[in-house]
Specification:
The chain contains 12 helices and 11 strands. It is α/β, with parallel strands linked by helices and 353 residues long. The strands form 2 sheets. The protein has an 8-stranded parallel barrel, surrounded by 4 helices. A 3-stranded antiparallel beta sheet has the order 8-11-10. Helix 1 packs across helix 12 and helix 10 packs across helix 11. It starts with 7 loop residues before the first strand and ends in a 5-residue tail after the last helix.
Length: 353
């Protein structure tokens, strides 16, 4: 179950909208996608077993069409090794084909990950590890300590949040990071991930829209893929979908204002369309209005059309007055479906090999 550089590894939070999106991706695209699923941080005071119950609600179905997925439990490290072990145990019991993720400087999830290596093991290298200078020794040390061969390992070089960097800067950071990784050819898979998605919608004025450059994608496309013939190995592209890596865990909707917004992926930008506070106007009223702007209004030049994907089909249905599209969760689903399809469009439009 290896994959090459014409593949895609979206990093997605294990939340309702993202799970529903994965289940709605066009069948033709599924073989080219291996999702990396992050169990989200426990911030609501629920017992950890209930938190894991929520994560697994609908999850096995969501990934049942994919050849495998990655599962990362780093966000629940505070809940201890037993929580991570429980996640992996439930995944196996549910028949999920998954590869557990750990890291060379992690502690809590290393042992549980090594217990569930039926489909290999993933190492996720962080920007902090790179910037500390420890990777050239930490990587071989980790492999040796645990009796692993690089051919058993899916390696993810994760730059994390890069929303404040320009494309050339992201490309330079990627090159320097990769230079610290030994034996590029030896890993089962080699992936580079980053996220240029803004940390919040605060930069968009109410009742307006902004185009935000997909700098992570442009850095991979124009600075890695473009020189693929001179590379020992072209890493697979990965991003964080339409969510900043920090997510919205800990956001208390009882006290913090949120505005209705659409996140819509284009070839080189995200179109961010913002309404106003959902305390002022109900989301069930606002989201169809925003959809109408995109499908029929002054933003229609950005709309890919209802035939593009199930997400776009539903966006048009919302603009046409269909029920069921009046919540942020529903629009996270639609935006994620469209994003996954748009990324695959970009990959398929490139020259290969």
């Amino acid at each position: 179950m290896t994959f090459g550089a014409n593949h895609y590894v979206p990093i997605l939070k294990v939340k309702q909208g993202e799970k529903a999106a994965l289940a709605s991706v066009a069948h033709a695209l599924v073989p080219q996608i291996t999702p990396l699923l992050e169990i989200v941080e426990r911030t609501d005071g629920k017992p950890i077993d209930k938190h894991i119950d929520t994560a697994f609600k609908g999850l096995p179905h969501a990934v049942s069409s994919y050849s495998r997925c990655f599962i990362d439990t780093a966000a629940i490290a505070a809940d201890g090794t037993s929580a991570t072990r429980e996640v992996f145990s439930r995944g196996k019991a549910a028949g999920m084909v998954f590869t557990p993720i750990t890291g060379v400087t992690r502690t809590v999830d290393v042992a549980p990950a090594l217990e569930y290596t039926d489909h290999g093991i993933g190492l996720r290298l962080t920007r902090a590890e790179f910037e500390s200078g420890q990777l050239p020794t930490a990587i071989p040390s980790f492999l040796g300590m645990h009796g692993l061969s690089s051919s058993d390992v899916d390696l993810i070089v994760d730059l994390g949040a890069v929303e404040e960097m320009v494309v050339d800067g992201i490309a330079a950071l990627t090159g320097a990071f990769l230079a610290d990784v030994p034996n590029h050819q030896g890993w089962r898979t080699l992936t580079v991930s980053a996220s240029a998605f803004p940390v919040s919608m605060g930069g968009v004025d109410r009742h307006s829209q902004e185009l935000v450059e997909r700098a992570d994608w442009l850095a991979w496309r124009d600075h890695l893929h473009s020189i693929r013939h001179s590379l020992v190995r072209l890493p697979t592209y990965s991003d964080y979908g339409i969510q900043h890596p920090l997510g919205v865990e800990g956001f208390d909707f009882r006290f913090m204002q949120v505005s209705a917004a659409i996140r819509y992926t284009k070839e080189e930008h995200w179109l961010l369309v913002k309404g106003e506070s959902t305390r002022s106007v109900l989301p069930s009223t606002q989201f169809p209005q925003l959809a109408t702007r995109l499908v029929y209004g002054h933003l229609q030049e950005h709309f890919a059309g209802p035939a593009h994907c199930l997400g776009c089909q539903a966006i048009k249905a919302a603009a046409d007055g269909a029920d069921g599209y009046g919540s942020a969760g529903a629009w996270r689903k639609l935006g994620t479906i469209h994003h996954l399809a748009a990324v695959m469009d970009g990959l398929q439009n490139l020259a290969w090999p």
